[in-house]
Amino acid sequence: MEPRVLQHDVRGQGNPIVLVPGGLTGWLSWIPHQERLSRQRQVIRVQPIHNQLGSAGHAGDPTYSAKTERESLSLTLEQLGIAAADFAGWSGGGRALIEFALAHPERVRTLTLVEPAAYWILQQLGEPDPVIEEINAFIHGLAGKPVAEDDLARFLRFAGFVQPGEDARRHPNWERWLSHRMALSWQSEEMDRSGRSVAELAAIACPVLLVKGTVTANWLKRVVDVLGERLPKSRILELPGDHACHIQSIDPFLEALDAHLGPAADAPGPSLGGAGTGGGSLGRGGHVEQALVDGIKLEYEVAGTGEAVVCIHGAFVADTFRPLLAEPSLTERYQLIGYHRRGYAGSSRTPGPISLARQAADCRALLRHLGVERAHVVGHSFGGCVALQLARDAPELVHSLALLEPALMVGTSAQSYRESLLRGPQRYREIGAAAVVDESLQARCPGYRALLDRALPGAFAQAVADAGTTLESDLAGLVDWHFGEADARRIVQPVLAVLGGASEALWSRFGETHRQLLMWFPTVEEFVLPGATHFLQVEDPRGMAEALATFYAHYPIPV
Questions:
Q1: What is the 3-state secondary structure (H, E, C) of 400-447?
Q2: 8 A C-beta contact, residue 103 and residue 73
Q3: Residues 253, 284: one domain?
């Protein structure tokens, strides 16, 4: 089949974003997104040929291929006079955009891929999935044939839109799905086949936002994870929901998408927080690099010159140290190194619990990569525990420790705190990522959302995306970790114990932990940041920076 200009709908003005749909209902799925995005951008919904003709009742053409899709999109852009654009694709649309970005990289400023149905990636990696093999055999068997109601019902169960044992015909969307069922007859083996190799994915150099649902099919999650490992400027967003998570969780999706597209409003070819070596814009005023260390990718940023200071962030919000990296009282005398721990933002994700020893080893490997032999180490919340573990494992690397309300389980509050941590994963499964993040952050910093929106735009959406790492990897490692008085006595480096002036009123654990630190460490100084709660360095970056600079001046690193 020859390429043709796709049916399209254009709304709004500004920099263009093209929305490419999945395989059944087509462009209808993007209508609510188009309505909201078009307030600030030119938004083009396109209808792939198989959706247009299939919804009209036409059986699939055996010559219709991935190349037809790709070049039809290119012809559509030419007719619209668009040289380059941002692109977002769902399911089969995401698969098509991977092909398009490889063939026409000059036309793609950013990509957003929502669970792209690029099963060929797993096949080439030797990771066949029996379930998807069954699905593909069924779908490919429909190619070019009439699609019966029973066929549609079976597809909906395969896709996860209808649960096992549920009558698909009773689903509220049944009639709408039924009218589009002939689109399934276009999903031939030729359509699913790619002439690309997995190694070619590294050639997609634009910023990529990868999206997956919390309860979607394992093979779709795996495709997203592999793309996150292979695409040099990618980050992963996990949303509550299934294969249609970008619809079910539209608010956090659009917030993350807006943060992803933000830099694209000013110039073509922007970089995102997942930028590769060479330093791309984070979209929040900084620059990020990537280091490949111990088999994983870690994002990091360096600001200032002088003695090295490495900043280890806590749970949920990965960019809490970003405001400090812009404070002259630090950057004029010190080289600040901020990084995203594994599983956060664009750093590599690894399944299962991550021990504190592993977290500390990641930090150590990054510093080794940067040629840093000795550093001041500052850790916030969970990051404070990583800092302590680093001082245990590599005392020769740690010159001083600044502990900003570290997440220690000590004193009379230890048991209740431990129990609250153990409840986190269950709450995550019950109420979803966004609600758990909100509960946790609100308890530690009332009114946190306005603070984050002002100081770190897009941070809440990224925290929701990273919630799985916090609740399934970080916390599992933390509850199995022990640090007590005997451990503290063995740390001979100077320690700055930091407490927010308003934190203890929110949770007595903060004050109790702070007093324990003052009693335990052989060489310790105290600092209370007036009026601050748990996000100290975000709430008052200047006050926090000046306190750190004073502390470091007391304990300079010998030349």
A1: EEEEECCCCCCHHHHHHHHHHHHHHHHHHHHHCHHHHHHHHHHHHCCC
A2: no
A3: no
Q: Identify residue 89 by its one-letter amino acid code.
A: G
What does the pLDDT look like over 274-310, one tens digit per residue?
A: 323 233 323 333 468 889 898 889 999 999 999 999 9
Class of residue 164 by CB neighbours under 10 A (exposed 0-12, middle 13-18, buried 19+) = exposed
Given a cut of 90, is residue 402 above it in pLDDT?
Answer: yes
Q: Judge whether 275 lies within some domain.
A: no
Residue 112 lies in a domain: yes
User: In the listed set 236, 265, 294, which residue is the last one of a domain according to the structure?
Assistant: 265
307: its two tokens: 């003695």
Does residue 144 sit within a domain?
yes
Helix (H/G/I), strand (E/B), else coil: 82 = coil
Answer yes or no: do 483 and 382 share one domain. yes
Buried b (16+ CB within 10 A) or exposed e, 185-220: bbbbebbbebebebeebeebbbbbbbbbbbebbebb
Q: What is the pLDDT of residues 512-544, one digit of tens each?
A: 999 999 999 999 999 999 999 999 999 999 999
Question: Is residue 380 within 8 Å of residue 544, measured between CB atoms?
Answer: no
CB-CB contact of 231 with 207 (8 Å) = no
Same domain for 228 and 290?
no
Angle of helix 149-159 relative to helix 130-141, nearest 10 degrees, comes to 160
- 31-46 b/e with 16+ CB inside 10 Å = b? eebbebbbeebbbbbb
Residues 240 and 373 placed together within one structural domain of the fold: no
Sign of the C-alpha dihedral computed for residues 37, 441, 420 and 221 taken in this order: positive
Same domain, 217 and 323: no
Look at residue 272 and tell me if it is in a domain. Answer: no
Same domain, 340 and 232: no
Q: What is the pLDDT of residues 61-88, one digit of tens each?
A: 888 888 888 899 999 999 999 999 999 9
Query: CA dist 257 to 26, 105, 208, 242, 484, Å?
Result: 20, 20, 10, 18, 43
Q: Which CATH number do you get for residue 490?
A: 3.40.50.1820
